[in-house]
Design brief:
The chain has five helices and 41 strands. The chain is mainly beta and 772 residues long. The protein has a single domain, classed as Maltoporin, Chain A, CATH 2.40.170.20. Strand 23 and strand 24 form a beta hairpin. It starts with 13 loop residues before the first helix and ends with a strand. Keywords: Cell outer membrane, Membrane, Receptor, Signal, TonB box, Transmembrane, Transmembrane beta strand, Transport. It comes from Paraburkholderia silvatlantica. Belongs to the TonB-dependent receptor family. It is found in: Cell outer membrane.
Length: 772
């Protein structure tokens, strides 16, 4: 998680050691990652000027561990690492970080299950980082070395990450064990800006479609030779393109650092306070008006405050020590409206259930804290250049989960009206403790060959306690542990070509929310209540990857990778009655395998990036579940999932094109074209429902920038240029609103797919003013 550096760019006495390391480990490391977009785009505009001195490209150094450290030259990293710089994000002016990923990075897609742009599920190679409780998570996310997968459910709240303060993002694929728990399909390492590398300030104002208004401010600088500072704040108000999906986002971040020849110490902190309404998925029959919500209101309130202390110190030319410590407080409140799927049923006493719906209020509060320490040793091992990294990490969290339910009826507009008071359903406390110890050895066998060996031992515990006195079955204590190894080999036959192969393993421990809803005899309605906690097995991933990357001339980069990740004891939320109740269970093996191809080139003022990804995600074991809305279900509503059936929600094919044109020295134009193939809907895990697939789509976005003066820039964006109607997510369900004008008719529910519609065409303009 270290920024790019030119060889020899380290501080003080360590500068000589770093230059020596690069010389011994990085012969041939002149290739840049194919996903490094903005550098080549800037070069394409500069090519129009008179030729200047020949400048060799910098050696690209990427992080190979969660903590800041010396890093490893990209040519010696056995993985298809993708890098995004701050300028890449700023150039396109996209509303959210997940939207940028989906439009630009190979293997990445997003799905909209919540109906809010700040609450997207991000998928990479078929693995998810989602803000939705109960979603099986497969990606780990770090900000400045701190894991931001929230301990309660491992969810990732993308709206809490200050995109404007990001200096660099690295997407590390595979089950790299060094990144610890939850790294099944990859890790996302985010580094924030500082005042020394991001001096000066700017203000950015924008507005446009759906009443969206945004203001962002940042300022960085130095106090004398050793102290620098950075601050960033963002305010966004958005009425939403749909009837009930408005957003209010408030973010702030700050950092203060001390640096000298051998030492860096920093303290950073921030917070966010966001209100995000969602329009949920809607029945396919509602698509005559895709703006309408199925039921409402649905509100997600996220607030967070965090503080991080970090530092690193070079004791001499060969020894570096780095570490961090953090505290994080999160409060999440979710208020949701739901129809009663048991409407019309008859209980043992002959009573008919006539309740139309419910309102559910659930609150999660979490205090998490932890620390990490990492030692880097440079030297020789058996006459070979060696970089040994050893680290330890400890993370703790105390969470409280309270949920309450209120009976409700629906208005003709499908809004819920509460009946009576809220009644508490669950009051539980959880405590998580995770410990890890890891090693990573990089050996320069020869100038052309590099061997990487790494491994990590993780021990995780989850304690669950019932605080209400009414659910003693919640009480439980679970521990999980495993050693996960990795090995990689790099070959640099030419200075601008790297070939690699790797094998690695990872683990995901079951979360408290999964452990507390794992009893087939007592299904629950997540995230609404807990019921019991029989044991689940941890998920284990095993990944093979092989690939190559390189550079052709000064303007062209390319990469190709093939991968296969097999999960053992994968965990699924298995429906027990309809799609609203169920339980988590281990379902055996699943597999994600595929290829990634990417390239960038420039022709004078034109920059072109093109990538393709293929992901074949399948179940490899047989299991059964309730899915009564699936047309192929038996008389009891049961479907059988067999080896070879495709995992829902994961597109097999995706093509992404980015085109930049520097029309003049002041004016540039860009476009993104994204094609994504169709996906199976949830509930169609057996792939047998004829209506249980969501069609693919093509989206075209435009952006343009004009530099009025050295300090002032105006810009404009158009998303979904051709106003394409599409959906990114689907689930089979029962539609209870079949009366006139889609009003409640619980006696005649209809089985049909529910979809998450995408936003129509949108247009925004903005102004960016910068100062030194």
């Amino acid at each position: 998680m270290i920024p790019e550096k030119a060889a020899g760019a380290s501080r003080g006495s360590a500068r000589r050691a770093y230059a020596t390391l690069v010389a011994s480990l990085a012969l041939g490391a002149l290739c840049a990652g194919a996903s490094t977009l903005a550098v080549a785009q800037a070069q394409s505009a500069a090519d129009k000027n008179a030729p200047g001195p020949i400048v060799l490209p910098a050696v690209v150094v990427v992080g190979t561990t969660p903590l800041l450290g010396i890093g490893t030259p990209l040519a010696k990293v056995p993985a298809n690492v993708q890098t995004v710089n701050a300028q890449d994000i700023a150039t396109q002016h996209r509303e959210t970080l997940t939207d940028f990923f989906a439009a630009n990075l190979p293997g990445v897609s997003v799905t909209d299950a919540q109906g809010n742009p700040f609450q997207m599920n991000l998928d990479y190679r078929g693995f998810t980082a989602s803000p939705v409780l109960g979603t099986p998570q497969g990606l780990s996310v770090f900000v400045d070395g701190v894991r931001v997968n929230e301990p309660f459910g491992d969810v990732v709240n993308w709206d809490l990450i200050p995109a404007g303060a990001i200096d660099k993002i690295q997407l590390i694929p595979g089950s790299n064990p060094v990144y610890g728990l939850n790294t099944l399909g990859g890790a996302i390492a985010i580094t924030t800006k500082n005042g020394r590398t991001s001096p000066g300030g700017d203000i950015d104002l924008s507005g446009g479609s759906w009443g969206r208004k945004s203001a962002q401010f940042e300022q960085g600088g130095t106090f004398g030779p050793h102290v620098d500072y950075y601050a960033n704040a963002n305010i966004t108000n958005d009425n939403g393109w749909a009837d009930h999906n408005a957003s209010r986002v408030r973010q702030a971040f700050g950092k203060l650092r001390y640096t000298d020849d051998d030492t860096t110490l920093s303290i950073s902190g921030g917070g966010a306070d966001n209100q995000l309404y969602g329009s949920q998925t809607i029945p396919r029959s509602f698509l005559d008006d895709p703006k309408q919500a199925y039921t409402f209101p649905d509100l997600n309130r996220n607030s967070v405050g965090y503080l991080t202390l970090s530092g690193d110190h070079f004791f001499n030319d060969n020894v570096e020590l780095s570490g961090n410590a953090y505290y994080r407080h999160l409060r999440n409140e979710n208020m949701s409206s739901n129809n009663n799927t048991d409407y019309g049923s008859v209980d043992a006493g002959g009573n008919v259930d006539t309740l139309q719906g419910t309102n559910v209020d659930s609150i999660v509060t979490t205090d998490s804290f932890g620390a990490s320490l990492q030692l880097t040793l440079l030297g020789k091992l058996g006459g070979m250049g060696s970089q040994l990294v050893a680290g330890v990490a400890a993370d703790f969290a105390n969470s409280r989960y309270v949920s309450s339910s209120q009976d409700a009826a629906f208005t003709p507009e499908r809004a819920t009206v509460g009946i009576g008071d809220f009644v508490q359903q669950t009051d539980a406390k959880t405590r998580n403790a995770n410990y890890g110890i890891y090693l990573n050895e990089t050996l320069a066998i020869s100038p052309q060959w590099t061997l990487t060996l790494s491994g990590r031992y993780d021990w995780a515990s989850a304690r669950i306690a019932d605080e209400s006195g009414m659910q003693p079955l919640l009480d439980g204590y679970h521990t999980f542990s495993r050693f996960n190894p990795a090995v990689g080999l790099n070959w640099n036959p030419l200075p601008a070509v790297t070939v690699y192969a790797t094998y690695n393993e990872g683990m995901r421990a079951p979360t408290a929310i999964e452990l507390a809803c794992a009893d087939p005899a007592a299904p629950c309605s997540l995230p609404n209540d807990f019921v019991a906690d029989p044991a689940l097995q941890p998920v284990v991933s095993k990944t093979f990857e092989a690939g190559a990357r390189g550079r052709v001339g000064a303007q062209t980069t390319w990469s190709a990778a093939a991968f296969s990740t097999t999960l053992s004891n994968d965990i699924e939320f298995v429906s027990a009655a309809g799609r609203t109740q169920g339980y988590f269970q281990n379902v055996g093996k699943t597999r994600r395998q595929g290829v990634e191809l990417a390239g960038h080139t420039a022709f004078g003022p034109v920059g072109l990036s093109l990538n393709y990804s293929y992901v074949d995600a399948t179940y490899r074991s047989t299991w059964t579940e309730q899915s009564p809305a699936n047309a192929s279900a038996d008389a009891h509503g049961v479907i059988t999932v067999r080896p070879g059936d495709h995992v829902p929600g994961i597109p097999a094919h995706a093509v992404k094109l980015r085109l930049d044109y520097a029309a003049t020295a002041q004016w540039s134009i860009g476009t993104n074209v994204t094609w994504r193939s169709g996906v199976y809907a949830q509930g169609n895990e057996n792939n047998q429902d004829a209506n249980g697939k969501i069609a693919g789509y093509v989206l075209v976005d435009l952006d343009t920038r004009y530099r009025v003066t050295k300090r002032l820039e105006v810009y404009a964006n158009v998303t979904n240029l051709f106003d394409k109607r599409y959906a990114s997510f689907g689930v089979l369900g029962r539609n209870f609103f079949n009366g006139p004008g889609h009003t409640f008719d619980g006696a005649n529910p209809v089985n049909e797919p529910f979809v998450g519609p995408g936003a129509p065409r949108g247009f925004w303009v903005g102004l960016h003013y910068a100062w030194d």
